[in-house]
Structures are given as C-alpha cells and as structure tokens.
Design brief:
Elements lengths: L7 E5 L3 H11 L4 E5 L9 E5 L5 E5 L3 E2 L10 E4 L6 H8 L8 E4 L4 H7 L2 H4 L3 E5 L4 E7 L3 E7 L3 E5 L5 H12 L3 E3 L12 H13 L20 H18 L14 H4 L5 H10 L10 E4 L2 E4 L4 H4 L2 H14 L5 H17 L6
Parallel strand pairs: 1-2, 1-6, 2-5, 3-10, 6-7, 7-8, 11-12
Antiparallel strand pairs: 3-4, 8-11, 9-10, 13-14
Helix pairs in contact: 6-7, 6-11, 6-12, 7-9, 11-12
Amino acid sequence: MNTISTPVIGICGGGNLAHAMAGWLGTRGLHVNILTRNPNQWGKSLSAIFPNGTTHHAPLGHISNHPETLKDCNLVLVAVPRFGIREVCHRIKPYLHREQGLVIVPGTPEVMEMAEDPSWTSTVSLMGIYKVPLICRTQEYGHSVSILGSRPLNRIWVAPGNNAEHWSAMLETLFDTPLTHLSSPWPFLLTNSNPLLHPSRCMSLFRHYREGTFYDKQFLFYEEWTEEASELYIQADRELLTLCSCCPGMEIGKDIIPVLDYYESRNAVELTKKIQSIPAFHGVKAPMTRRKQGWIPDFSSRYFTEDVPLGTKPICYLAEQLNIPVPTLQSFVEWNTSILNRFSPFRKK
C-alpha cells in the first residue's frame, strides 16, 4: 500500500458528492479509485468545473463494481444515500484492513452503530465528517461535475483508539478545509442540517399541494427562500437544541452550532437574506418534475424519501423517549408521511 504522503483514495458511490470528490482530489494529483454500480458509464478522466469557471480534468484510477478496488487505498470515502450505507459498508468490509481510514461522508447514525461493533473498530479506522465537504452538481454522469463551493469549516469524529490527529490532518489537506473535533458521534443523529433545512423549505413550498395543482415554474430552492421557511427552520432548531442539551456528550456551540449563529443572523428576516445570498446555493432547484400542465413536486426526491424518514423521524423518536416536546419537528414528519402516503410513486397501491 502507498505511503500516506501520496495517499490512494477510494470513493464508494456514484452521486453528486462522489463525482465532486473524485474531481476535486483527482485534479490535485491524487490516485482515485471508484467503487460504483455503473463502472461502464465512467470515463478514464472526470472534468471538474470550479466556481471561478475554470475546468480541470482529473485522471481516474480503477473504476469497478467490485470492492477489491479499495484494498490498496489509504482512505475510503463512503458517499452513498443514507439508505444504502449499511449495505455498502457490509459489502466492502472483507476488503478493508486496520491501516485504512473509513470515512462516512456525511456522518450518519450508522457511524454510531458501527463504533459500538468491535468487528468494525478492529477492522479499520472509523470516522465521520459532519457535513459534505463540497457543494456540487453532476453535469454528465461519470464524465463531468460542477463544484459550486467548499466548506470554510467542517467537523470530524474519529472512533476512539485511532490516531485522530493523523486522520483529521490528512482530510484537512485533501479538502483544504479546517476540521474541528466532535466530542461524540451524537451530532450525526442530532443535526440541524438537512433533516431540518430541507423540510422547512419543502413544507413552506408545498404545504397546500393537492392533486391536480400545477405550478408555472420550478422554484429556486435557496434563492427564493422565504421568511416562512426561515421561521420553521428557527423553531425546529430551537427544539433540537433543547433535545441536545439532554444528551451526554453534546456541547451546544461546539458539537452543534445554532442555526442563527451558523448563518450569522439574528432573526428570520436576516436568515432569509443570508440563505438567498450564498453563492454556492445559487441555481439549486426545488424538487419538482414537469408535466404537460406545469410543474408538480417530485415526491421521489431524497428531500422527501430520505431527509425526513431517515433524518427528522429518528430525532422525533429520541425526543419522545426523553419526553421532550418537538412540535415543529413532529409536524415535518406528519406532513411528509401524509404527502408520501398520497403521492409517492413508491407507495403501495
């Protein structure tokens, strides 16, 4: 296996983030192997379009649907949808070894489960990154990606018994992003990112949607962000912070940053303007699909199928166990469940 000074990186996944990380790391001269279900749809190099408009071509290493492609990697980055993490990690486990780092990007509650399993902690250096390091959109699958921005700061949790300083220094260098250390993996469950951010906007947009309703355009998710969405986001965040204060190892201000502090805002008005103005969010569309009569919500989007069922709902379950009221968060779950029961293309008929 190569030395850490010239690490070989393995990426599991084929979505936006996997493309962006491959492009970002490949343009920096790193050898990148990719584990994907669709290896034949990838080229030998990946075009990465950066925020300043420049395009760089990242050569790629082995691209395969077999986990053996990861065995010589120093660092393995798992960037798959939340519902696929367990399956992917189980599949690659026999090909990992103790000298490797395994990073779930972004960190999820599965990291907490794996950290309690000796078969994992004895196999690999396990860690999770709090938020996705890159904001991105795939342009052509397997061939080009737009990297819209990177995080100015991120956080990491490394399972006890591993060299946290070593791994965090490596990841800081790879993504040009300072990392602070989380006290525990609790923030991977109790996060005020997508499980709060996305339903705040989606519910404010589509709360009154009925079958037969059509919109005359596809809304911009962030640039047309509203004060109603901000109010929901702030209320949900306050409920989450109350819950966090009851969980050991969760330090508010360190392990979770209040929404208003994170976005340097004092109220819903300022938060709305801030979210609307973030350059990396520009051009991101609301989850919608076009029909002959106009636009309708796309209920197959992960905003509905993943962020709430796998993100918001577990938070509400923990709050229920601790007898902590979270009415706004619960309203996200109830509305999302109702809307999926009626309109999801995956519902049982």
